[in-house]
């Protein structure tokens, strides 16, 4: 009986590990996605592999997109600053033009 309890304890420990690391959630979501397919794929194992692989790709894509967002925010800030400077120069030009026009 001791061997049986040790085996159950190891299984329970492993099950908690899989839950804690998100493996159970990932597998569940892939299986639900497979279940919800109107037309079941001919190769269910390939479907699971593709959808599990997509999780890894998403994080790589996410990293790329986050970098792009950061770059675009910097560019936007630079353009806003340039726009502000150009508006100030235009305002100064208009003010100088009005002063010159009033003197004539």
From TrEMBL:
Subcellular location as annotated: Nucleus
Database matches in CDD domains: ZIP_MycBP-like
Keyword annotations: Coiled coil, Nucleus
Gene3D superfamilies, alphabetized: 6.10.250.1060
PANTHER family hit by this protein: ASSOCIATE OF C-MYC AMY-1, C-MYC-BINDING PROTEIN
Similarity section: Belongs to the AMY1 family.
Name listed for the protein in its UniProt record: c-Myc-binding protein
